Amino acid sequence: NAGCKEVVEWAAGGGKWDSAAGGWYKSMPTITGVSHEQGNLQDFQRLYFCSPPGDSFCGLPPCAGCSNPPCGDCFAGNQLFASHRPGCDGNDKGVGCVPPKTALGYKGQHWPTTVIHGSQEMHIFAIGDWGGMDGSLDPPEGRKTIVAYDWGRRPGPSVFPRSRWNKKHTVQFCDHKQLVECFNTRGQAPCTPECGYVAGVDDQPQLLVANAFKARAALVDPQYILNVGDNFYWGGIEKTCGSPMDQISYPTKHQFDQIFEGVYQGAGLTNKPWFSVLGNHDWGGFKFDNGWDQQISYTWASNRWVMPAPYYKTSVVYADQDFDVDYFFLDSNFIDAMPPEEDPNHNMCSRKNNKPSASCAAADGPESVDACPGWFASLWAEQKPWVTKLMGQSKANWQIVVTHFPLQT
């Protein structure tokens, strides 16, 4: 912790009385259980381990001496567990109730069948590439804040500006840097007109879609949601893979609260299952070792998020209407797992953006940058016979495949 010693000592001394301290140390009550004014040296070390407000960070939490032990968790002594899905019987140890020991432990397994009663018209909602950026998070591990433009550091989802092209993607009208400039000026000069920035639309796309989603849900009451991934931008959960499967990290809770739980609620949506897969951005976008396994873990901390493995199946039975559906959820992200030297901005296996030591071996994921393309290719190769066999055996009226990247049959 030599890298954070000086700043932690300053914060616990005079820094906490600075006029700006309330903003810097806004997460103190959640993480330590005390205000920044009440925090001691160990409380500030805990803060700089869990959610450091600045460039300095602690690699380890305090061993003792914090206000609300145990000092190693990031929830004021009330660690958020994913050890048993809400609503499950305490004796139930199946896939629908308890997490696996490792992130791929349940791959290919059957999530418990959903039985839906009623003779009314039934509705399914589908959504994808919906996740915003959590600009209000102070990420751990020396990571940068998830902010793309000057005013993106605020609660709720902010936008990752993309380059803009014509419909056939043959002519680029506006690159990323130009569009960021439009966000910074909110469409005013020197914003490039070809970017087509529209205030009130471009600055809140996820919320506009979510509001339409919620309005429609209130009218038709969908039974469940199919989610095809890219749940968190830019690169999924801001935590290195390998967390215990029965625990939820501070970044995971923060990002789910800001991007999912705080957005998709209301009549027709609250408590409805979200059957989900990982998108390439959930693995890390241009790296592979972000907290994709924490999205799987969240399945057992939530009563509606469902992602027990990178690939799995489930069934839905419409008991009073005499039909059923078998769903097959696949991970198709091998498409963005290229040789490490190729296309670094769109390659999960990029040597440029992954650290030389990057590894998700502890989570059953790729063990190195060089092994990354082959690992994703193998994951896809094992899914093909799996889904082919099960679809051939299916007696359901409908068989539906859910995946992130569209695939050729």
Automatic annotation (TrEMBL):
Gene3D superfamilies: 3.60.21.10
Claim: Nucleotide-binding is one of the keywords in the record: no
PANTHER family tied to this protein: TARTRATE-RESISTANT ACID PHOSPHATASE TYPE 5
Domain of life, per lineage: Eukaryota
Record-given protein name: ACP5 protein
InterPro entries found in the cross-reference section: Calcineurin-like_PHP (IPR004843), Metallo-depent_PP-like (IPR029052), Metallophosphoesterase_PAP (IPR051558)
GO molecular function: hydrolase activity
Keywords: Hydrolase, Signal
Organism: Symbiodinium necroappetens
Domain Calcineurin-like phosphoesterase: 217-407
Gene from which this protein is expressed: ACP5
One Pfam short name: Metallophos
